[in-house]
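Tokens as discussed.
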């Protein structure tokens, strides 16, 4: 039987058609949360025994979903074709010996590969990608690969400490972090020519580059081990880029992410009203830098409190409106999932029947992917979340 996310989306939409126009009390629902499914039936797409999987990432067209699987000290990247969920995931990071069977490939048995691979970023068409890997050597570089394209090829062979690759929406540009000169700085590479240049400078470490939807701006964080602030580079691929600082306070800000329309940037922040240690929130700031950079005015822009901080993937915007989906840090309730409107702070709990939810991402078609615990091991789940027109 062929199972696809497209089929799941149609089934979910049909099942909830009567509910989409009304709230639980029978009155018309208000705000952007009207388009959210409240009860999900997630599908496990990575189930393996005694393996942990995490860091799901959708391709821009939503067809492919990557995730990472830990294998002792090594880590592999696998990809699921969402149009054929019954098929086993495909291993796309380096593989030095072929597995003896489909089952062995699925379980990574008989594979001599001690490499550590992470942080995959898709090209627009989804069948090609870049990622961070070390080929088992401890030297981290950026690699380019493709579905059925053979062994991945190193793009940044001149450096030994590279990571956090991020492809531009049009696929022409690659931004990544390189510590080739001692501290992590951002480098911009023109994939059509191979030419590259540093786009940040200074003594602070720059991390988590994220492109705006139109490909003209880049958000990132800069700081030390204890504190990071959020910055945006406007006109990042042009001759005169401009850097704008979005936050400047004592709280740690991580993993900026642009909204679908590019008007706002959400990020994790160690700010919380009670001033408690290791309690995180999600804050949204105007992407153009016009908002407050610190103090009570910026604190007022925190719209989700006590969240599970997932620095591998960052805050998960929905493909419509100004809402995000996140996991609340409530261990007794197994980290339940919520959707929140960044403008109104209206929230809705999403029932999934899963435990210890982390690493939430939402595709351009409104499909949610996340990791959850099954018998003490973490697997990757998917479910339609947003009712798309």
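Sequence:
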């Amino acid at each position: 039987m062929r199972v696809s996310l497209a089929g799941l989306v149609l089934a979910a939409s049909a099942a909830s058609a009567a509910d989409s126009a009304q709230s639980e009390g029978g009155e018309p629902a208000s705000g952007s949360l009207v388009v959210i499914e409240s009860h999900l039936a997630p599908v496990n797409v990575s189930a393996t025994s005694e393996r942990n999987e995490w860091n799901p990432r959708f391709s821009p067209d939503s067809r492919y979903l990557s995730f990472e699987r830990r294998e002792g000290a090594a880590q592999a990247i696998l990809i699921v074709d969402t149009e054929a969920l019954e098929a086993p995931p495909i291993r796309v990071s380096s593989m030095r010996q072929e597995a003896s069977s489909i089952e062995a490939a699925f379980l990574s048995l008989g594979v001599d590969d001690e490499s550590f691979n992470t942080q995959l970023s898709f090209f627009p068409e989804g069948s090609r990608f870049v990622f961070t890997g070390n080929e088992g050597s401890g030297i981290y570089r950026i690699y380019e690969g493709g579905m059925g394209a053979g062994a991945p090829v190193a793009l940044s062979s001149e450096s030994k400490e590279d990571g956090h690759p991020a492809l531009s929406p049009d696929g022409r540009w690659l931004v990544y972090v390189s510590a080739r000169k001692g501290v992590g700085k951002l480098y911009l590479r023109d994939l059509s020519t191979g030419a590259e240049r540093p786009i940040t400078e200074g003594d602070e470490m720059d991390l988590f580059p994220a492109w705006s939807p139109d490909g003209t701006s880049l958000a990132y964080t800069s700081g030390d081990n204890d504190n990071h602030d959020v910055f945006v580079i406007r006109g990042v691929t042009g001759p005169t880029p401009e850097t704008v600082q979005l936050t400047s306070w004592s709280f740690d800000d991580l993993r900026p992410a642009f909204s679908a329309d590019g008007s706002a940037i959400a990020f994790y922040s160690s700010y919380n009203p009670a001033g408690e240690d290791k309690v995180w929130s999600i804050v949204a700031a105007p992407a153009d830098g016009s908002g407050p950079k610190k103090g009570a005015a910026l604190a007022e822009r925190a719209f989700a409190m006590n969240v599970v901080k997932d620095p591998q993937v960052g805050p998960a915007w929905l493909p419509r409106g100004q809402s995000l989906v996140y996991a609340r840090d409530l261990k007794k309730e197994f980290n339940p999932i919520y959707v929140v409107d960044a403008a109104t702070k209206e929230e809705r709990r999403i029932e999934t029947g899963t435990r210890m939810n982390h690493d939430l991402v939402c595709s351009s078609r409104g499909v949610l992917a996340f990791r959850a615990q099954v018998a003490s091991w973490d697997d990757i789940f998917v479910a339609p979340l947003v009712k798309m027109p």
